[in-house]
Prior knowledge:
alpha+beta; four-stranded mixed beta sheet; 1 helix; 4 strands
Amino acid sequence: MFALSPAPRICLAARGTDLRKGCDGLKALAQSIWAADPLSGHLFLHPNRQRNRLKLIWWDGSGLPDTTTTMANSTRNWTATHNTT
Length: 85
């Protein structure tokens, strides 16, 4: 369990991301895609290219933890032509 800011935004990248990137790389992506401060307490979700894993980063007040999850039997169609917030 983790604590969130009072009104967090949840930002999902529409395009696949190289999940080998660490917190610094994903933080830079959050700044470039959404022009948002990764230290704001918002949630930033980055899917891999196959759209079967997500990496989540957020500022918890003491650091930028990242969490990776696998979505088994995912049937979601995430085809997108551009990133949205």
